[in-house]
Amino acid sequence: MVEHGDIRVVHRGGSKINFRKPVITNDSRFLLCASGESVKVFSTSTEECIHDLRGHTDLVTGVLIKPSNHLQAFSCSADGTVRLWDFTDGILIKVRLLPSIVVCPLFQLVAVHLPQSGDQLVEARELSAVLTGISSNPAATVFGRGGEYIASANGLQLEVYFFKKQKAYRFSLKEDNKKGGKNTFTCVACHPNDDCIATGHEDGKIRLWRNFNHKKEYTYSTLHWHHSAVSSLSTNLLSGGIESVLVQWRYNQENQRDFLPRLGAAITHIAVSPDGALYCTSHSDNKITIIQSCVKVSAVIQGLVKGESVGTDLMIDPRSKSLVLNGKPGHLQFYSLQRDKLLYNLDIVQQEYIHESGLQQFEVVKAAFDASGNWLATVEERKQKGAELELNLKLWAFDEQTQSFVLNTTISAPHEAQITGMCFSHATDSQTTMLVSTSKDGHFKAWQLAAQSQTDADEGPSWSCDFVGAYHGLVPECCSFSADGSLLAVSFQEVVTVWSPASWELLTTLSQPPKAIRNLCFGRLSCSKYLLGTTDSNLLCCWNLLTCSLEWSTSMDVSLLLADPLSENMAAFCCQAGLFVFKPSEPRPLFSQKAVCSGMVTRAVFAPREEMLESCEESSQWLNRSQLYFLTQYMVNNTNRSAVKEKKSLVIDDSVAMTPFYLLLGKHRQQQQGGDDPQSGVSAERTPLPQGSVAIKELLQTPAHVLPSTSFLCSMFVQSLLISVTDSREESKHAEEEMESEKEEEDSEEEIESSRTRPEQQAAVGGGEAAESAAPAMTKAQVRELRRVKKLDHSWLAGLLDS
Amino acid sequence: MASFKPTKIQVYPKLGEKVTQDTLYWKNYKAPVQIKEFGAVTHIDFSPVAPHNFAVTAFTRVCWHLFVHIYGPFSQEPVKTFTRFKDTAYSGRFRSDGQLLVAGCEDSVVRLFDVGGKVALRMFRGHTKAVHVTDFTSDRYQILTGSDDYTCRLWDIPNSTELNTYQEHTDYIRCGVTSKLNRDLFITGSYDHTLKLFDARVDRSVMTMDHGQPVESLLLYPSEGLLVSAGGRYVKVWDLLKGGQPLVSLKNHHKTVTSLCLSTNGQRLLSASLDRHVKVYNTTNYKVVHNFDYAASILSLALAPDDESIVVGMTNSILSIKHRKSPEESKEISGQQRRRPSYRVFVKGKNYVPKQDDYLVSKPVKQHLAKYDKQLKKFNVSKALDTALETWTRHRKPEITVAVIKELDRRGTLNNALAGRDEQGLSQLLNFLIGNLVDPRFAPVLVTAAEMILDIYHSVIGQSPVVDRQLLRLQELLEREIDYQQDLLEVLGMLDTMFASALPRKEVPCSGASRSNGLAQGEASTSRAQLQAT
């Protein structure tokens, strides 16, 4: 049974695909990679995600193709299970539970005997420890030469264990810090059919070990190209590191190398397909690159990139309706929420990225779209130790031909200090577009698109500073334009100043001591006369701009305040991840929930829905037009995992396709279940009437073999055409009407129209009525239908539902 | 694999004037023809009829140049010279039919010449001092003269008799102009700071305007509603129809304005001054739209009909003539640029349109990188800096050098690139710093580089006299710059005080309500409406 007003948080994607080494299937057609709590199957040629293998309840920590059947794959997870999948069909075959291991400080490599069994759920009990004290990095442990031995490196020690001899050899290196060299092992790879182990080291060296089955007579040779740690090695002697250059060494001709430079970000894993035709590298920016063996990039699978901080807030591109935030260093990413796919990266900084640790890079820290999506403003900054802050404000115009943003104006050093806030004027009808930026240097500046001058016609219009404002030398924090663009509110610590952008007059000041303003937001639509602000002293204030006075205030520790661009609703996130949705004009919140997720909500955004929902539920009505997405940051297994989550009302209508069959049957199911408790059953019914009549038309056009029996459909169909005056009369007429033929259908079309409008009126009036009309949305037609349905025999349907 | 992104060369806004329609128009003149005269050129007048000859009055003679459209030695040599002057000649002017020429003289005699002849046709005697002003009236039969004896007179040409004498000015009369529409009206300007409008039908002036400075030049608009006068550093425009009301006062020169001139269509006003500039004003808003620089103080200025040439006479007795470029000529230059062989080689075969059954082999577009970019791509940082410091780049495109230094700094390798240089390399680097360090566009980058250079090379100071001298120069430069900045800050402070005292203080309404009862309310549900109580 569905509970009403149940709004639930759904994980929508954006999980890491570079957490573990991806696996290429034997036929090189698919790529499997661990992604959060699921395993994703990508096509290597089209870059599309084909299957999402869901089932694990915790982070997936490894994927492996089953050696005996190359159409099946194992995955292991932090939830203590190993699952076997058929990845071409996306079906779970087996689940094996591993006994929970006592938490110990050292990682142990254990051999697990997988019992052969027909059951889907198998518990493996036989465990035997092979090596103790191995590195937690899976790249530092590898099987060699068809499983004859296993090599594992940790710290300064390499350990090789031969299965047949049941003997382990240990080789140690000296810790060498003289020339900045560090001999710590980072990764290990074994030659597929030769006794040779390659190890990567912290100082960029690669050592090739031979004769390691003797304790004393082992030899190694050293290869050196990388300038910092080798993070990944593969069996074909491919190596990669932070330089983001893939180096292919020739075995036995080590001074010959092939390079694939500028892969975008530091290489974290390298995988090779079994036939050696494809390589794939995963990168630190949540990207998998598929490379053909002739060292040519053939495809790029890009996930949502999350840098150290989401400096640019979450934004929605008004044109593509995609989520926009800063991604790769110096880039802005456009991420499709519907398809969980990165659309494209916009290069903001346009500089060669130097892959070197400890280098200060340009970061995109602020971005803003104007209402129509024609202009994008970005701020990039670079703070170097001992040097001045480098700031650039860039304005991008949308180019219809290329369907992307083109740089229009670069303003270097727009402010003397960091920019704290930026927003465009919202007015869509006005001719001039205006941008306001506030900075820590105590000024806010208004930028305007200058008219095209006559002489330099080859240059288009460009942006220039229109006004510089300050208020008593205080530092401005937030800025916000009213919905019609006629007012600009800028908060200067604890004072909110309201300016007129037309004349740049200071109209009024509002203040709410004693703490600084944290967020500032104008109301929308009918609430546009309200200005909302939150302060550091846990106060949510609402000022009425007509009277210039405080309308109401409440004590609430709000960390984030958002306005839905399509309705009057505002959402406020509290520090303990509580969520309140309210209208500024109404005293009661529309919706409130404590702890929507674990951890603090750092960023959130309202995204408009593609099609409006028609939910009459009061508590979920605010989600009709837009969805709320928020970004959390919580710790799982010592890895930072980011996830874009969505608040979504749990309505069946959402999850099941709207077919005519569903409309009829789905309704029944609810009514049947609610049969014992008519009250709840009545209110559960929320199939909207207007859609019903559309469905009737569809019903007549749907092929007969997909429909339920005619006797079942007929009565309901006819009933939906009825217009009732009173219940008693309707009852008596009932028999006659059932006999009516379908010829009269055309005639009654108009009547349906009129009956459709009625429930809405009733719903509007019936708000304050008593228990009898507890569900005001239910019309008389619906009541009648309900009674009819109760009389009908649904025994055949019950069996269908149970199965 | 992404391609290498080349170093971004910052585009700085062009300093100096903007390119406007006016600058394009007024720059479209050839290199000036310079003619050495025998003395300071005091007056130039164009003949109103074609071929527009012009009379140049210089020292004791009136020369007469032929204006031609074709280049040739003609314009270099005077076509005709009148030398029958005992002393310095002044104000040689053509009659409206271009047949007669009148000139005043230091010896107070006014002479009238036939353009074809050599000997004076008439001599008008009557003035007691030098005559600086001569002009024909619009009926072509009378002559107006103005003299240093404070009088101006009207003469009849056929009878060579004096018609009238006006003795109203109290100082030398140095300029005058007759109306082209009314034969009886003329205006004179004098060193007594006044402009007087005379009517020949009455015996005295009908209008007097005070210029405030000794008047040097006068000009009537073609409509004759507006009068322009130049005197001192000011150019003033008077509305004659409103009874001599001053309309605009322009102060764009910093020395005495000596000559005025109007472009043919009446849209632009030109003024020449002793400060060696000719300024062009827009006559609708009286803004300076263009500026010509000359080598010496300018005494006289004239513009040929259709602005075909600008003739300027200077105190160093040089006459400078600028001819307008013909349309073919200006077009030819741009055509030549387009036909450069390198471009032809570049497009060779590129504009071939493939036929329907052609098999197309696509080739990746080769990315062209500058030399320093190629070196940066290979991480040859020192070489890249050397390339950017090559003489041509360093002098002509300092922004490229600065951009490369900035890029190296961003890569964290500027220290490596700057280190390890010999005396020559270091002095080259220091030379560049001395030249560009105080440029506000480059200062943030170059200051970092300068600090690094000092850190790296402070141990070798004293080993090379060349480097030491340059370091001292750098130090001097910085000290001067610091003083300069301090002065600027002081001026800024003064301006701030002045503005603060000058602007009226505006009271911003501040809501008292929000102050009084902010914290009292606990819940949003109860706080509405109650808060209105102030």
UniProtKB/TrEMBL annotation, chain A:
Q: Where is this region: Disordered?
A: 668-687, 728-782
Compositionally biased intervals (Acidic residues): 737-752
Location in the cell reads:
Nucleus, Nucleolus
The WD repeats are found at: 53-95, 178-209
Q: Sorted alphabetically, which Pfam families does this protein's record hold?
A: Beta-prop_WDR75_1st, Beta-prop_WDR75_2nd
Domain annotation WD repeat-containing protein 75 second beta-propeller: ranges: 314-635
Protein encoded by which gene: WDR75
Q: Identify one Gene Ontology CC term for this UniProt entry.
A: small-subunit processome
Which GO terms of type biological process are on file?
Answer: positive regulation of rRNA processing; positive regulation of transcription by RNA polymerase I; rRNA processing
- Protein name per the record: WD repeat domain 75
Any single GO molecular-function term of the entry would be: RNA binding
The alphabetized UniProt keywords are: Nucleus, Repeat, Ribosome biogenesis, rRNA processing, Transcription, WD repeat
Q: Which spans does this entry mark as compositional bias, Low complexity?
A: 760-777
Report the InterPro entries cross-referenced here.
Beta-prop_WDR75_2nd (IPR057644), Quinoprotein_ADH-like_sf (IPR011047), WD40/YVTN_repeat-like_dom_sf (IPR015943), WD40_repeat_CS (IPR019775), WD40_repeat_dom_sf (IPR036322), WD40_rpt (IPR001680), WDR75 (IPR053826)
User: What organism, scientifically named, is this protein from?
Assistant: Sparus aurata
UniProtKB/TrEMBL annotation, chain B:
> Which positions carry the signal peptide feature in this UniProt record?
none
Q: Name the UniProt key words of this record, in alphabetical order.
A: Nucleus, Repeat, rRNA processing, WD repeat
Domain of life, per lineage: Eukaryota
Ranges annotated as biased composition (Polar residues):
513-534
- Pfam families reported in the protein's UniProt record: UTP15_C (PF09384), WD40 (PF00400)
List, in alphabetical order, the GO biological process terms annotated in this UniProt record. Answer: positive regulation of transcription by RNA polymerase I; rRNA processing
Location relative to the cell = Nucleus, Nucleolus
Q: Which GO terms describe its cellular component?
A: nucleolus
Q: Where is it predominantly found?
A: nucleus
WD repeats (start-end)? 124-165, 250-291
Entry annotated with the keyword tRNA processing:
no
U3 small nucleolar RNA-associated protein 15 C-terminal domain sequence ranges: 351-497
* Annotated PROSITE patterns: WD_REPEATS_1, WD_REPEATS_2, WD_REPEATS_REGION
Q: Where is this region: Disordered?
A: 511-534
Record Gene3D superfamilies? YVTN repeat-like/Quinoprotein amine dehydrogenase
Its job: Ribosome biogenesis factor. Involved in nucleolar processing of pre-18S ribosomal RNA. Required for optimal pre-ribosomal RNA transcription by RNA polymerase I. Part of the small subunit (SSU) processome, first precursor of the small eukaryotic ribosomal subunit. During the assembly of the SSU processome in the nucleolus, many ribosome biogenesis factors, an RNA chaperone and ribosomal proteins associate with the nascent pre-rRNA and work in concert to generate RNA folding, modifications, rearrangements and cleavage as well as targeted degradation of pre-ribosomal RNA by the RNA exosome.
**What do we know about how this protein assembles, alone or with others?**
Part of the small subunit (SSU) processome, composed of more than 70 proteins and the RNA chaperone small nucleolar RNA (snoRNA) U3. May be a component of the proposed t-UTP subcomplex of the ribosomal small subunit (SSU) processome.
Q: What is this protein called?
A: U3 small nucleolar RNA-associated protein 15 homolog
Which organism does this record belong to? Sparus aurata
Lineage at the top is:
Eukaryota, Metazoa, Chordata, Craniata, Vertebrata
Q: Which gene encodes it?
A: UTP15
